[in-house]
Amino acid sequence: MAGRLLTVAMGMVMAVGALAGCGSTGPATAGSTQTITLYNGQHEETTDALVAAFTRLTGIKVKIRSDDEDVLAQQIEQEGQASPADVVFTENSPALEVLQDKHLLAALPASTLADVPARFDSPRGDWAGVSARVSVLVYNTRDLPKSKLPTSVMQLAGPQWSGKLAIAPGETDFQPVVTSIAGAYGQQAALRWLRAIKANAGNHVYPDNETIAADVNSGRAQIGIINHYYWYRLRYEIGAASMHSAIAAFAAGDPGYVLDVSGAAVLASSRHRSAAQRFVAFLVSEQGQQIIAKGDSFEYPLGSGVHTSQPLIPFGQLRPDSIGVAALGDGHLALSLLQQAQLL
Amino acid sequence: MSCPPSAVASPTIPHIRQRAGGHRAPRVVAGVSLLVAGALLLPVVFLISEAAHIGRGQLTDLLLRHLTGTLLVNTVELTAAVTVACAMIGVACAWVVERTNLPGRRVWATLIVLPLAMPDFVVGYSWNSVAPAIHGLAGAVLVMTLSIYPLVYLPVAASLRRADCTLEEVARGLGHSHIKVFLRVTLPQIRTALLGGCLVVALALLAEYGAFEIVGFQTFTTEIITEFSVAFDSAAACALSLVLVMLGIAVLAGDAIMNAVKRTGRRGPHGTRPPRRYRLGRAAIPVTGGFALLAGAAVAVPVTIIGYWMMQRQRSSLPAASIVAAAANTLTYSLPAAAVATVAALPVALLAVRHRSRGAVLLERATYLVQGLPGPVIALSFVFFAVHYAVAIYQSPELLMAGYAVLFFPLALIAVRAALAHAPPQLEEVARSLGRRPPAVLLRVTLPLIAPGLAAAFCLVFLSAVIELTTTLILIPTGAHTLATAFWAQESNTSYGAAAPYAALLVVIAVIPGYALGRYFDRIPTDRTGNR
Q: Fewest CB within 10 angstroms: A169, A185, A250, B468, which?
């Protein structure tokens, strides 16, 4: 019996192995074509479009490995010199800052950095800003008239939002807001604010922004802080007719109004440095930025003077807090505050 | 095909004393077991070496803050409650399926293992849609129990299939009530399987953070994941994970004590006959109702959400990974991993059951620890060891398979071990006394006896590997997708419509082992006696 079982199991294994063997593309054929490996923390959709255009333009092939950016950063750290990665592309800047601090990134050519306004690049020049998202309020339009919306993120600490507010304190998008508040009003004020919004959120402490967007839309929560992108993605997925929520910006310069920068870098350990640098240069070139501007990722292009063609608040009209990528750093101040507030 | 053990097992040799201590382990068994245990302990070695990088001040700050205490309490409460709930549900289902004439029991048996193949995200999303009020400890217990009870059900069902039902019938013939028969006769026979199932459930819960993703219930592992993913601090995450190792050791010690209370095993060799099934009669109605409720909550809720997504318009601009290629990859990686884990579990189980010694027990216990560690920590340990010592196979299919085999080894071990605990060693001794060499005894006597356990082990590992995400994303060959990673890519892009087919195919794949196992169990007695 066992013998037969094992035979059957092995037979299945071998059959599937053969099937998979036929389906796979096999090792990359040698020749003039170069192949680089991209560790991708950005949404795959944006990345796929950018990679396809890059390969058409240069003939350089790009193998994509996608995961959450924090996992990729630690994987790169463990891999060290043996890392197969040539380029790393993340949704937010702290992951890149962490890698830069550990000397795992190679400096980018000045010409690449010059394509993007300096305030969106790494101050030390190891990574370039590629696109941006902005933190906004999302609110349920059936429960809340626009006139009642807070103008400052600080007002969310007020008792009127008890049981109505949803937060995702573990999301990498939330910490910049905390850092920004601490920068504007001091750490003690930031801590008081965190404790108050924790009490207000009650059971609406969520693991991710997608849940905030979905739950505010369904009326389970009335208001939340998210990156604008999540609301547009939700509308794209379920259709405008199903939307019972809207987004609203904070008042100009409010610490809740933060620009989050997505960036890319070449690894110090890369054995294909020039091809990798060409890829990052392509991301911030006019052609690369146009793909972001027209894509369904609803992010703001940052370089080469390209503007988004999606129905977003025009980039020039955004009035975010003046905090930059350098001040946001690797996010450890926000983390410490979140831990003191027992939110993490 | 080996000869049926019932032919060998005539009741004329009851005088052969059952060995609890056993003779010295053959060198091969001991050597292979040592290798297996070594591989299983690699993640713990990594943990300790990483944790050494953390400053003592930082560690005490993290450990002594108020939230840590709360989270530890949460972890212990969740672990205890879910383990008890899984034990009750798992045993009840296994008993009904294996011992009663419940109509459609094979269909139920197939349905109720499906939760193992549900992505956490699907479960979370569906419960959030169906019952948004679910939260807190009660919510976490409900949702976690519903997704993890098959870990008890499968080994217990395999064990019941092999348990000696003659004893039950005799006890019933003596006028004992069903409950008394179950408690006095059946339960002792399935003890090893039940305790094993509870052990892996408890360990899995220590490392669980799905409860947070699903119902917002924070555990100690949530804090570890925070250090890992928000603070980018793997040293702190590893140091905190050592606390989980301590908890894991406590769970293992508790299990060892429970196991030691009374050595289980069959008192005398009997052939396995098909059980005389209890006629449920009118009781079939409430029992069917109970199964319907369980299957409804554990399976129908998430499957309905997948169906709902599939009917949504698909607007993903993400080119869909070929679903055929993803399915082929899923099978290519998971099937060999399940085979490897099952085969590797055999020597360790043999050592623990047949050649019991202090060293053997310690070795066996050590292999369970991996089950109590958070996924990202284990995955990073694979990266570390592969990059330093086997860079040629880094991110190769073989490494991923090895990763799965390590990750889910404890599941295979409990099933194989429970089966071995049942198999009467007298048969092996008879075969040996007849001059058979040990490999022949293993092949001709032991393996046929424990075949249901091997099958259950294979299925448990396969089902778990099919759905695995964290380690898969880190170790999979660059550019390849499994059904789970393709689902994740679409889901994290809020493209639920495009994600749904991958989840649906995962469910379909999960039906196969559940169904095959049921059919296989049904055939065992039929092979022997030709009747039911």
A: A185
